[in-house]
Amino acid sequence: MPAILQEADRAKSIVTEAQADPQGVVRMGCPLGLVDIPVGGILPEFLECYPKKKLQIIGSERRAGLINEWIDLEVRATNEPETQTSLTMRKLDRARRILVASPSLIERSGGLNCVDELADLPTLAMTPWVSFHSWELIDPNDNKRVIRHQPRLTCRSMTAILDAARAGLGFGLLLESACEADLQAGRLVRVLPEWQSEESQFYIVFTTARACCNFPESGFANQRKCDSLCMPGKDGRHG
């Protein structure tokens, strides 16, 4: 009997330790354009928070199949709620894109007086390459404008587009959160601030079966960033 009790205590300790110090593999799907910024910025912090966990990031141009592709969770930026009853969405942060450029480019172009002028100026785009790209913009009065342009550079990397914008290669319509540090430092300037993209939301999406996990309802801040990814793996290991 003492041996049985010892094993029971040992099992209880293992479970308690697993709950207190999550471990296992988390497979996270993410749009290619968000892998480096903002999602990439939270990954080292997450791994530091939970040293026994492992992360596998699956970047893709399409939405992942959370069940069929064994994805634990997925980051999405969308205005539309999830319609599949087997999936649950939790808000992380807003996603708003603003027009930015380097001070040198603004000086060379003579400034902008009208949003339509963007069609004839060098631009940067994160969408896949096509002959013409479109930016859908809205102002505070809900006036909408579609700007067709031919970018000098198209790339799915936010880091590469930011580098190009800082270098004065073109005007960009970029995530406000990704530009914040550059705007504060003066490396980039907001252009035509009355115009921006329609606001969408960042979500974490996961199967309803995992809804018991303590996901944050908003924000990407510090510890809550880490908690938002801490969930069980497909093989039942703790997260």
From TrEMBL:
Gene Ontology molecular functions: DNA-binding transcription factor activity; sequence-specific DNA binding
Domain of life the protein comes from: Bacteria
SUPFAM superfamilies: Periplasmic binding protein-like II
All residue ranges annotated as the LysR substrate-binding domain in the record: 20-209
A Pfam family reported for this protein in Swiss-Prot or TrEMBL: LysR_substrate
Key words of the record: DNA-binding
GO biological process terms on file: DNA-templated transcription
Xref: PANTHER family: HTH-TYPE TRANSCRIPTIONAL REGULATOR, TRANSCRIPTIONAL REGULATOR, LYSR FAMILY
Protein family: Belongs to the LysR transcriptional regulatory family.
Name under which the protein is recorded: DNA-binding transcriptional LysR family regulator
